Amino acid sequence: MIELIPAGLVHAELLAGMHRVCFAEPWSANSMAEVLALAGSEGLIAVDGQSLSPAAQPPGPAGLVLWRRIFDEAEILTIAVLPPWRRAGLGARLLGAAMQSAARGGASTMFLEAAADNLPALALYESNGFTRVGLRKGYYGGVDAVTMSCRLDQTSVEA
Q1: Domain ranges of the chain
Q2: What is residue 117's DSSP assignment?
Q3: What phi and psi values does residue 24 have, to the nearest 5 degrees?
């Protein structure tokens, strides 16, 4: 069973290690700590603590999401699922939890960016109500970034 726990400054090294596994240009522990220290920033770590059968993955971190809310807007800063837990709905669960928290905090719109060649991520975001609103040329080391937004309201975010 995967539990979502709040991410704090104490988790900066863990978050950076997970980010290293998932991204070509990962954030450092210092970057993670700086993000978590920003006003309005929140994060969740997905922890698989029940995988105790011999065929299952060992207990430990499975994914993360960091977001920031400022007044009525929120932004997903980073979201990652470690390879053994991909394609099982964890990314959607992390995204949904961030959307719910931001909406509860008063955000009416959420933004994010994703690499234009990251088709699974784009599909995840679109299936959760995000629409493409722009493109940043060469943003990810030569790969374009697709900017997306989503309205956060009671129809798109469960209470």
Answers
A1: 2-151
A2: T
A3: -70, -30
Q: How far apart are CA 43 and CA 6, in angstroms?
A: 6
Q: At 90, which helix (H) or strand (E)?
A: helix 90-104
User: Tokens 């722009």 belong to which residue?
Assistant: 134
Q: CB neighbours of 76 closer than 8 A, spacing ≥ 6? A: 65, 66, 67, 95, 98, 110, 111, 112
Kindly state the tokens that stand for 142. 């030569």
CATH 3.30.930.10 is held by the domain 2-151:
no
The secondary structure element, H or E, covering residue 122 is helix 119-127
**Strands across the sheet containing 2-6:** 2-6, 41-48, 60-70, 73-81, 109-115, 143-151, 131-140
Q: How far apart are CA 157 and CA 61, in angstroms?
A: 25
The residues near 104 (Cβ < 8 Å, ≥ 6 apart) are: none
Structure tokens at 37: 């220290």
Give pTM, 2 decimals.
0.90
pLDDT per residue as tens digits for the range 95-125 = 999 999 999 999 999 999 999 999 999 999 9
